[in-house]
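Folds vary. Our protein:
___
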Amino acid sequence: ASSLLLAVAVAVNHDCPHQANGCGGTAEERAEEARRRARLVSLDAPWNEVREAVVDACGLQVQQSTSHCFQDFNHVDCCTMDSTRQHETNEASRVAGMHAVNYLGSHIVDASISERGPGGSWCTCQISSPEDVCHRQFGARTAFKLVWCRGTGFAALLDDYANVLSHGKPTGARGEPPAMGGARAREQSWRVLDESKNASWAGRWRAACDEVQYGAKAEAAEAEEHDEL
């Protein structure tokens, strides 16, 4: 009986939901480079410039296939996945709210900047967060996430533990950012996080936004300080 309990304990996933090896699908070198570049992005700039800089930081080419990236309420996660996971679909992971297949492999291969490290990048959907496309379909941690703090025009780039990489208030030449939805998209994007069924997950984003918006300083987070996703 004790050996059976041990086997079950080892199999419990403390990172990416329903992945046998945690977030083993993360392209770590690529993720670190994405975070390094995200720290250099100024969010206090015109939105079109900000968005293109964020797309580039993620390790993606600014082209037609990435024109939706970070441009609506949903495609806000910079996911860097191992090359063995690039062609994973949603058929097994079954992320709620997503297409039953959600095949992205060819787009990932085409748009990823190869010089940024092994594996690929994509701006994955945050819907059902944290049981979302990056964590569940690709078995990877997000390199960073674009968060519209409390649905306002104040934006932050945060890593998977909500450590702040950059923050600011983008300006829009034609309406409020992002282009696909404006204020409504920002509010909806925040609700996905704020209303997550995982209380710890929701709490980390609130704390990070309180830090950058109101000066409520939060300590830098490490993996072991958070419960499982």
The chain has a mean pLDDT of 87. The CA atoms of residues 151 and 187 lie 4 Å apart.
